[in-house]
Amino acid sequence: xxxxxxxxxxxxxxxxxxxxxxxxxxxxxxxxxxxxxxxxxxxxxxxxxxxxxxxxxxxxxxxxxxxxxxxxxxxxxxxxxxxxxxxxxxxxxxxxxxxxxxxxxxxxxxxxxxxxxxxxxxxxxxxxxxxxxxxxxxxxxxxxxxxxxxxxxxxxxxxxxxxxxxxxxxxxxxxxxxxxxxxxxxxxxxxxxxxxxxxxxxxxxxxxxxxxxxxxxxxxxxxxxxxxxxxxxxxxxxxxxxxxxxxxxxxxxxxxxxxxxxxxxxxxxxxxxxxxxxxxxxxxxxxxxxxxxxxxxxxxxxx
Amino acid sequence: xxxxxxxxxxxxxxxxxxxxxxxxxxxxxxxxxxxxxxxxxxxxxxxxxxxxxxxxxxxxxxxxxxxxxxxxxxxxxxxxxxxxxxxxxxxxxxxxxxxxxxxxxxxxxxxxxxxxxxxxxxxxxxxxxxxxxxxxxxxxxxxxxxxxxxxxxxxxxxxxxxxxxxxxxxxxxxxxxxxxxxxxxxxxxxxxxxxxxxxxxxxxxxxxxxxxxxxxxxxxxxxxxxxxxxxxxxxxxxxxxxxxxxxxxxxxxxxxxxxxxxxxxxxxxxxxxxxxxxxxxxxxxxxxxxxxxxxxxxxxxxxxxxxxxxxxxxxxxxxxxxxxxxxxxxxxxxxxxxxxxxxxxxxxxxxxxxxxxxxxxxxxxxxxxxxxxxxxxxxxxxxx
Lengths: 303, 384
Fold this sequence. Notes:
The complex is a heterodimer of chains A (303) and B (384).
Chain A: H1 23-35, E1 39-43, H2 47-51, E2 64-66, H3 72-85, E3 92-98, H4 99-104, H5 107-115, E4 121-126, H6 161-166, E5 172-177, H7 181-192, E6 198-203, H8 207-210, H9 217-226, E7 233-236, E8 239-242, H10 244-250, H11 260-263, H12 279-300
Parallel strand pairs in A: 1-2, 1-3, 3-4, 4-6, 5-6
Antiparallel strand pairs in A: 5-7, 7-8
Chain B: E1 2-7, H1 8-18, E2 23-26, H2 33-44, E3 51-54, H3 58-70, E4 75-80, H4 81-96, E5 102-107, H5 121-124, E6 132-135, H6 139-154, E7 162-167, E8 175-180, H7 183-190, E9 206-207, H8 213-245, E10 253-256, E11 263-268, H9 269-284, E12 289-294, E13 296-298, H10 302-311, E14 313-318, H11 328-337, E15 345-349, H12 359-371, E16 377-379
Parallel strand pairs in B: 2-3, 2-4, 4-5, 5-7, 6-7, 11-12, 11-14, 14-15, 15-16
Antiparallel strand pairs in B: 1-8, 6-13, 10-12
Helix pairs in contact in B: 1-2, 1-6, 3-4, 6-8, 9-12, 10-11
């Protein structure tokens, strides 16, 4: 899809309360363009509750229901059931939650809603931290990253939410990144037209959380994909396809950039370079990504 | 009209289904299970045509009810004990969001240790969530109260969730006859549900976003006003239902033989029903004692308690304990009397953990209070 073909409608309005360089607003703008005005969005506690702006104002031109942190998928289940009873199957129900609300506190409700085959799209914008509460570690935070609760770097590796989702064998699951607008819009549009549960995760590089300059948001997302620290894929009815550069990395047609090329721009990893290089942890980060790709190749690379 | 000879849970399910909710979301917990199983049977036989979401936790049950209610549908759920406690956060949420969810709670002990018998600490510990709380004492009252709960919750001057409480096993698993009106009577009584607010693509609004203190203060005040409105509307709706069905179980209180009483017993739930037998025996023995069975704990019937305090000394039995204070009903009764009455109030903690409370026990408690030999608050059955 060319830029000129993007839907003109804007459901995320100007003057919202996000930080400069915010990836969530980039993602929201694209997602809402693809979903359109016949959408009801369920938002748990996350940065978007702030982006919505202060009552009685709102930055959304669609109906939005805020709900408790762990509750997005369960709340959306209720909305979807009610609309089905009312015969309003023309309305898309979307949950929009952060990685804390998805990987950690909300995983039970999410797994339940997927298992019940709820007809909705669950979108996780993953900035790899609890950003709204002030940059604390989440299950999505990568190994060695500084957060306010992992002061000398996180000791554990992130969990692979995508693999957890795939174990539910839902009709459509995908990973994308705010740096690839076409990829985001095409995946959301595809999900919108598939009945049943859909899960889409969007990597959202957060300038204050990752400690990089606010004009580098898009670049940080692209480097994450180029280095293989993040991947673009979609899985439709258990058929897995990697997209864009991720496909080339999977097929070994291009080598991924060393992960250092991604992390060296992020202040959250600066302790790995100063006062001296922490070779052990740098190697461990690279190994985690190499192993992940080897696992992907074993599972998904057709001989 | 038919007579249904069945357990409290199954009669509650019958009432819930006849109220025609569009969405029921529930999670099983003893002793509520036979209620959700009965709804599943109504789904299977086609009597219930709404959506039945078998969620993965009570927390999600309440969240799904919140979502469905926000989308403009009538909703129902049921739980008990730990399930109710797990919902706690969302009980506040449903009330603050002004969503008229109706829920049955089967009063059950909280662990540890595990105990599935009756005790009211589960619902009493939810008293500050903004939910209207009604306590039943018979299967007929359960049926009639569940129907009325929808009318009450959805009333434009209330728009708050309603919790209908029934005691574990004594009501939930005991068969008693209940008269079930025909569907038309229920349909006419409840009317078509018109939501006070809903998620609407033609009127895109953001609900529950960040709010400053001034507006938040107003929201809390409005909830309090709605509960005060309920004090007047509960008796009105009870009268309307009596006209429609013939059944009436009292308004905020059910009064039993209170004329000329010098002592009035206040109790709730199944103890309230048992108390009637005790009152009969005590009156036969010449005691001037009556019963005021509290049906509605929230909104608390302050004015009615004051009236009782002007007439008689009060005896309060609590099947709960606010640890570090006293029985919740006793506490609130005394607060209502403060500065308004010279009445003496005596409180008994009884039946915790499902310990049986027979009419003989109730007689003994009343006699102690009447004789003035009881301390202000007595742990009945384990006095020193």
